[in-house]
Design goal:
Length: about 525
């Protein structure tokens, strides 16, 4: 009886403990949700209002001010736009135009439940980008899993420092010099198809170049990262494109931002998980084969980015990095870094090159000036190397001006890791600071009255002479987290421009509709249609 009673007591206590735990978990989650969606944005807003910052009076608990911003953006996107009109802020960063007109320079708004202030003063921007106490905002979990994992782009703090040390040698000048040939080869393959199309069409043809720039940059990144395994790498791009499409659609669903939503077995979530899994499988296979090669072949030496990464990684085996611990990447870390390089290195440069082709076609005088320089430097043969790329000054000026007018990442964000002082602003812990790169690149106070014109001449004496403040030009960000692939991308862009202009003449097709948009990246909504002619030599 006692035993039975004892058992009853035990079961009761167990049930009580379980119920209490469940209730505590529910209470904790409800409190976190209330903090995230209601309390934190209101608290931060109160602190900023007390300091004279202004912004929209109301915001939706899930969507923040997104409805108003998207409505304004869609109205702007539906208007016709002249190609030489670079005053496109209302479609690229609509929140900036909408709220700076209403509230002046010191304004805030809410992106979903995230409360943000916008900072444009170049001195403050410099402080934000260089001070490591401002860390990278965490990305939506689905985007993170799909494209970056726990890779360099998303890491913060000590993990980021360790990872950057491992990744940097793969992008040093000496390593990059050896990649120029690969860049030329990948470009030539696509340009040969242009030549064939022109021949078939009897002298000139219309081409949508955004697609072809994507083929070049995906081929360059898979060849430079994976060398002989580039074909396996290239399979990933189709999946990545599909993931971009699915995630863009998913973004329109307000529940997408709810914590834990990714675990709901919706058709879209299932497709996304399947694609992520497929990509990881391809990458793991490539890396495992490499690890095996390195193990059995003593003479195995660094040839491509993955080899370089793996060899820096194995040299780190016995090296104490920080706090006396060693840092070595495991296979999942390597997979995440490859994913990061694929997305960061492909879509960015591809959109950038598309805008470059468009502006070269629209400004024939600059196309000709660049062509003369290329003729002088490399005599129009494909004998391009790193030294010759360095000598292409006019091409460099054109590329800078395209980066200024069409920054591919039109805004950057950072989060305060603790209460801080930024100039005369008190920045509370957790506040998100947005840097509107696009608007800084188009500000007449920083660039002069001709800011809305395409004028590469402004870069004749370098960036420091082109604008009032070095931090006014940040297409690749600034401070310790500047783009790891900056020099890689500049080299690749020069190779593509030099190869295209050595063989072809470009003009804008009448079928081109100018519609820049900011969908993750600053890119042309309907692609870029150009008329391509073979150059008379
Ligand atoms: C037109 C081309 C490119 C542009 C405009 C661009 C722009 C940027 C920007 C603005 C950031 C910093 C983001 C932030 O501070 O929040 C960044 C980071 C990064 N980029 Fe690029 N990028 C380009 C090409 C590339 C290429 C070709 C690669 C690699 C092959 C690459 C790899 C990376 C990586 C790994 C990071 C993260 C660096 C870190 O956090 O330490 N990027 N990029």
């Amino acid at each position: 009886m006692e035993l039975i009673q004892g058992q009853v007591i035990t079961w009761r206590s167990l049930a009580l403990v379980v119920t209490t735990l469940v209730l505590v978990a529910i209470f904790h989650n409800v409190c976190s949700l209330i903090m995230y969606f209601w309390w934190t944005p209101r608290r931060l807003r109160g602190i900023m209002e007390k300091q004279g910052w202004k912004g929209p009076k109301t915001f939706h608990i899930l969507a923040g001010n997104m409805h108003e911003i998207m409505k304004f953006r869609d109205e702007e996107l539906s208007k016709d736009l002249a190609l030489r009109n670079f005053d496109t802020g209302s479609r690229i960063l609509p929140q900036y135009v909408l709220y700076s007109q209403k509230y002046g320079d010191k304004f805030f708004y809410s992106y979903g439940p995230i409360f943000k202030i916008v900072v444009t003063d170049p001195n403050l921007v410099k402080e934000i980008l260089t001070n490591k106490l401002y860390y990278k905002e965490s990305l939506n979990i689905m985007i993170k899993l799909a494209f970056f994992g726990k890779g360099l782009f998303t890491l913060n703090g000590r993990n980021w420092i360790e990872r950057r040390q491992i990744m940097e040698p793969s992008f040093h000048h000496e390593a990059l010099k050896g990649m120029v040939n690969t860049m030329v080869k990948a470009t030539t393959l696509v340009l040969d198809t242009w030549e064939k199309k022109i021949q078939d069409a009897g002298g000139s043809t219309e081409l949508e170049v955004n697609n072809d720039m994507g083929i070049i940059t995906s081929s360059v990144i898979s060849r430079t990262t994976f060398g002989n395994n580039y074909k396996e790498g290239q399979q990933m791009f189709e999946q990545m494109e599909a993931l971009v499409q699915l995630l863009t659609k998913a973004f329109a669903n307000p529940f997408f931002f709810l914590p834990g939503y990714r675990f709901f077995p919706t058709p879209s979530n299932r497709k996304i998980s399947k694609l992520i899994h497929k990509n990881e499988k391809i990458l793991k296979q490539i890396i495992q084969i490499r690890q095996e090669q390195a193990r059995v072949d003593e003479s195995f030496c660094a040839k491509d980015i993955l080899d370089l990464m793996m060899s820096t990684n194995s040299n780190n085996k016995n090296k104490k990095v920080i706090d006396g611990t060693t840092s070595q990447l495991n296979i999942q870390n390597l997979v995440d870094e490859c994913k990061t390089l694929f997305l960061a290195g492909y879509a960015t440069t591809s959109s950038f090159l598309t805008w470059t082709m468009l502006l070269l076609a629209e400004y024939p005088e600059w196309q000709e000036r660049a062509r003369s320089e290329i003729r002088e430097v490399c005599n129009f043969n494909n004998d391009i190397d790193a030294t010759k790329l360095n000598q292409m000054k006019i091409v460099g000026m054109i590329l800078n001006e395209v980066h200024r007018l069409f920054p591919i990442l039109p805004q950057l964000t950072r989060v305060a890791s603790k209460d801080m002082q930024l100039g005369d602003i008190f920045v509370p812990k957790g506040l998100v600071l947005e840097i509107p790169v696009f608007h800084m690149h188009h500000d007449p106070k920083l660039w002069g009255e001709n800011v809305m014109e395409f004028d590469p001449n402004r870069f004749t004496n370098g960036v420091s002479k082109a604008c009032q403040h070095q931090q006014s030009f940040i297409p690749f960000s600034g401070g310790p987290r500047y783009c790891l692939g900056q020099n890689f991308s500049l080299m690749e862009s020069k190779v593509v421009v030099a190869s295209v202009l050595s063989r072809f003449k470009l003009s804008v097709s009448p079928s081109y509709k100018h519609c820049p948009e900011n969908l993750f990246l600053h890119s042309p909504k309907f692609g870029v249609q150009l008329i391509i002619k073979k150059l008379d030599t």
